[in-house]
Batch of 3 targets.
Target 1
Amino acid sequence: MRNSARIGVGIALSTTILVLITACATTLAPSYDKAIVDGLVSTNKKLMRYFASTSSGTTKETFEKREKTYNELIGSLDALVIQAKARPIPKNNITDKVNEALQERGVAVLEGDDAPSATALEKISETMTKMRDTDKKQGVTAFEVTAFRGQVVIYLDQAITYESYLER
């Protein structure tokens, strides 16, 4: 009788532990947000079209024609930053795995308390703001456009890689 009581208690304890373990959902990363990915894809296309249109360089005299586009791009990027930062970030090793994937592709990784995509989007916004301000002051040469584009592409790759990684 003692053995069957122990077995019963063992089964009850095992069942209770199993229920508790399965009831506790562990979040490994922020949740996938299709709106952020769609915004990234859309903004990526707009940025690349813009870089193509300015690839020969610009002059400060024609800046007014481009100012609205700069502001729309920067505003879209800043809105995506807010969306990306609005998701809670659990503490775990998912960012390490994403950073490993980025490093394997030869892309620099980002550190910080926010999602890597949010940090990357902030850097893109800063880059586009610097390009806008330079363009307004003196225009940008074809070489400068290429440099700004290169920096934006690196950060876009980081943001898109991270957000795509979340869709699992």
Target 2
Amino acid sequence: MILISPSILSADFLMLGDELNKVTQAGANLIHIDVMDGHFVPNLTMGPLIVEAVKRGTSLPLDVHLMINNPERSIEYYAKAGADYLTIHSESCIHLERAIKQIKSFGIKAGVALNPSTHESALSYVLDELDLVLVMSVNPGFAHQQFLPSALKKISSIKNMLLKSSNKNCLISVDGGINDQTIAACAKAGAQIFVAGSYIFKALDYEKAITSLKTLAQA
């Protein structure tokens, strides 16, 4: 399974509706929405109102990534705004298992993200409850960063953890620096969802960019 999730952080917000239509028609599988609070990461981005607007603007599932402190306080808002996948960071959540159950109580899929310096063992006691694991291949906060090769080892390790677990449906996503030079190695390591921002939204032809990523990952 190869799924491409364009990150609208790199889209033209003046033309967001048009951008959503273009990536949908170009073959995207999900829409990735980066939520940043200016505290957990040094950037401030979009809130539930943007998620609601995006939900109205596309038929694709929304892949909402909360890079915020105390995510438990915001889960309800983003779930009701239209998130289909809601991913929180293990580093920002003291009661991770409780927060995962809170996400699932809204009938949506729950994910946990790991920063580059966070060991995959942080997932040990919650892995059976997850629908998605998001491996950050850059330090979160800004677009246009270089891919960190250490993510490959982490993806492979998480894949092995899942194979040994009772959870056969959890997907591995990777976010940061995904392009035609990095996607094949990530797919080989075990990733299935690929979050790409600049590579898609800075391309002249969105369909060509998305097709190239899928072809390289499948190969």
Target 3
Amino acid sequence: MLLLRKIFFVICLCVSVLCLTTGYGITGNWIGVAIALATGFVWLFARKYPSSGLPFVCLAGSVCLAVVGRLAGSPPLLMICGSGFALCVMDIIFLEELYVSKII
């Protein structure tokens, strides 16, 4: 069961980052691409320290990236999927934290 959650975490994180970077890449905003990639790496730290406020910061950053990308002219479907899968990543992080705290 834990392996399945890790697989879903990786898939959702990759889809979220891929959607955001593709959206920014289409508009030619390379700084947005770099920030979206950096957000993906910060999500990995959020998974390691879920009890900190980092998952909320990552979610807020991903949603803000999606909003700014949409205002910059990125396709809406990519931005909606990017922020939606970021929400899935945060849910998986908190699901793992809940599961680990119940076992211990």
